């Protein structure tokens, strides 16, 4: 993704008709996964692929590769791990938020929600979900964020 010059008008960079994918008679929201662990990344692809209203439009294993790929893929939602090699997931969230205020960002992490959920939200994420949660919670978090709500794992809500 390229930054826009100051003073330039924001416009939706997505070409018409590419925002969502058709899945039968349902229009699926496009999800981009940024996860460095291959097994967990594959599991996310499988879980999301099993949902009629969601479709994986790309994957990356680090923030640098993800940034450019996300610009090309034009997802509705980005799932980003915090612990990425090189620049971390929170830096990716900040960078993505700086160039696109409308993109939905959900941080998925193994880190303690009591410590990291607030950091993720301050960086610009729309939600935070822990990796150890059930896949149903992850899907619910994705749907909430896509629907314009914020989402934080139950563990972080109990502490707050």
How is this fold's topology laid out?
Elements: E1 20-23, E2 26-34, H1 38-49, E3 54-60, H2 63-73, E4 77-81, H3 89-99, E5 104-109, H4 113-123, E6 127-130, H5 135-146, E7 151-152, H6 154-159
Parallel strand pairs: 2-3, 2-4, 4-5, 5-6, 6-7
Antiparallel strand pairs: 1-2
Helix pairs in contact: 2-3
Please sum up the structure shown:
By secondary structure, the protein is α/β, with parallel strands linked by helices.
Describe this protein with a few key phrases.
160 residues; alpha/beta; Rossmann fold; seven-stranded mixed sheet; globular; disordered N terminus
Task: Characterise the protein shown here.
- This protein has helices spanning 38-49, 63-73, 89-99, 113-123, 135-146, 154-159, and strands spanning 20-23, 26-34, 54-60, 77-81, 104-109, 127-130, 151-152.
- The protein has a single domain (21-159), classed as Response regulator (Rossmann fold), CATH 3.40.50.2300.
- By secondary structure, the chain is α/β, with parallel strands linked by helices.
- It has six helices and seven strands, in the order E-E-H-E-H-E-H-E-H-E-H-E-H.
- Helix 2 runs parallel beside helix 3 (89-99).
- Strands 1, 2, 3, 4, 5, 6 and 7 form a seven-stranded mixed sheet that branches.
